[in-house]
Amino acid sequence: MWYQIPRDEMPELNILFGADNAFGRLLVIPGVLSALDLHEMLPRRIFVNQMLTLDGNKFSTSRNHAIWVNDITAKETGEPLRFYLCRRRPEGSVEDFSLSSYESWKRNFWDGRLLRSTGKANQVIGRIATDELPCPGQWSATDIAFLAECRRFNAEVRARSEADYPDVRQLTRAIEAFVDAIERYSCSVLHVPAGAKENEALDRTAARAVTFALVGLCVATYPVAPDFAVGIAGSLGLGVPKLSWLDRDWMAEPVRLPESIGARGGE
């Protein structure tokens, strides 16, 4: 059958296997295919999956681990679990997964810092007096530094999102650090009382800056937490996040907010 497929129509093969199958998949099978002149069947990309251990044990269906994982995901959305598994992806050494560590991380980051950070960012946007995001006004040194941090984050998202081999471990860790940066900046903005005429120009800039940050955040999280990412994008009147959004200047891009300012400001 393989000989009947024209070379230019051969499907691109990618193969994923466990580390214990490396000898056969990397040496024996390619050698046999080459000897039989079946070069088209050789995979273009090879991914060796070095699995996490579970509470110090090798993941195994004989230990009912598959049932155990199914019970976890049945109790809650799978997004925080997927995010955590990505950030713990093994790189050169075995990583161990424990339920207690996961639950501690979830309380601290997913249910804590992440929600707090996005909530504060929405409060910053809620300070503006229109449903259409205005252009930036006056800039402070804090605004300039934060925007530079946003651009560095976007560059890292691009680098970690290579199609051939996305680095989800470093991507998720970069997301965590950026979430903390958004909260720090938002708190610094909210520390100054709103409503004063002299602060209106600064508020416009801050609203644009956190929008810039939230766009980058939803693009970065979409591959591992799509529901969360779509929710953030929707709060900005946007659709499904795309990597190409990182190429747009969100300090000037037209943005119409779907929610009332009062509702936003109360978050």
TrEMBL record:
Residues 11-101 form the Methionyl/Leucyl tRNA synthetase domain. It comes from the Bacteria. InterPro entries: Methionyl/Leucyl_tRNA_Synth, Rossmann-like_a/b/a_fold. One of its GO terms (molecular function) is ATP binding. Gene3D superfamilies: HUPs. One of its GO terms (biological process) is tRNA aminoacylation for protein translation. Keywords: Aminoacyl-tRNA synthetase, ATP-binding, Ligase, Nucleotide-binding, Protein biosynthesis. Signal peptide: none annotated. It holds the Pfam family tRNA-synt_1g. Belongs to the class-I aminoacyl-tRNA synthetase family. This is Methionyl/Leucyl tRNA synthetase domain-containing protein.
